[in-house]
Amino acid sequence: MREVFQQELREVQGRLVEIAGLVADSMTRATTAFNESDIALAEQVIAGDAVVDAAAKTLDELAIDILARQQPVARDLRIVVSALRISASLERMGDMTGHIAQLARYRFPDKVVPKTLRPTFREMGQLDVEIARKLVELLETQDIAIAEEIRDLDDRIDALHLSVFDKVLGETWKGAAVDTVDATLASRYHERFADHAVSIAKKVAYLSTGEWVPSES
Amino acid sequence: MREVFQQELREVQGRLVEIAGLVADSMTRATTAFNESDIALAEQVIAGDAVVDAAAKTLDELAIDILARQQPVARDLRIVVSALRISASLERMGDMTGHIAQLARYRFPDKVVPKTLRPTFREMGQLDVEIARKLVELLETQDIAIAEEIRDLDDRIDALHLSVFDKVLGETWKGAAVDTVDATLASRYHERFADHAVSIAKKVAYLSTGEWVPSES
Known about the structure:
By secondary structure, the first copy, chain A, is mainly alpha-helical. Chain A has one domain: Phosphate transport system protein phou homolog 2, domain 2 (Methane Monooxygenase Hydroxylase, Chain G, domain 1, Up-down Bundle). Chain A has helices at about 1-35, 40-70, 75-105, 120-140, 145-170, 175-210. In chain A, helix 1 runs antiparallel to helix 4, helix 3 (about 75-105) runs antiparallel to helix 6 (about 175-210) and helix 5 (about 145-170) packs antiparallel against helix 6. Chain A is elongated and about 65 Å long. The interface between A and B is large, with 36 and 36 residues.
């Protein structure tokens, strides 16, 4: 029984890695769609979100099935509950990639943000892609040193998020209201994406250290 | 055993109702703080979010403890898993009230949004408070007619959310960039608050009808 359970946990883990991979690919495409105003890519991201949702749902069903059949307790139980939470966070990360792609679609053929902000969003996008790739690695290896790296990347994204507001609210900002709205939303989506990654990293760190982390954030 | 389990489920339900009550109170205060620029109230909301977080954490621990001791299967298992998800959504709703209060604090002693938008935000705030009160009632009574009412309220909030963008992007908008940023964020927070309520309502509806709803949204 124990061995079956361990195998099922590996199955859960494999699926989490797979969903994280889908999310990382989606963020890669979303940032390109956003930065290059690539409408075809934006459409791909928006359509692809259903795949992430379906994969998360399948994983949830598997986890609940394991709870029912294996009746795990103590640490094993928390691992399965954590998997459900990680799945919910990955699903939200997928939503954020869809939101970013949608901004690109709304403004097409224009670019979403004016020139002065493009380097900032390019960097935020790269960092979000990097954080998503690190997340895949973390879920695969459970190496908690990677959780630290994710937190560091998130700090850099937070700093860029604040710098967007500094720019938009600064005296040199010449953007129209639509640019201000788009920059505000885009920055928030990029920042939330990274927040969810940190939230997952904390849960994985718990699985290694035994230190339990409450539901969200 | 079955009777103990039923009693524990009632305990879980009671705590969900309690947390939803905290969130409803917090939203009531947050909207007043936001609309009236009441800094003391804003501080209360921001400080109070830790109470919601702690209550959600306690509930999660209880739910996990029930899973470990009672080893529920089938529908009983899904009820407990749903409680964990509802707790996570309530915790996020609490975060939104904190974000709304923070906008009031940032702009104090000024009001957060210019005159032309105040009636819209007043209405959004009232609807969010109403949705939160309905949620308490739904969790208490499990009357799925209330879930429908929550969805209807959410539709009205979504329409107001779109109308904020219409105003901000319209030709008559005279707001500075800071007003545009604040209106964008405030509208998003109000809308997300309602989204989480709908997500919870779907889960409660499942508990009555047996129709399972995937992790988020």
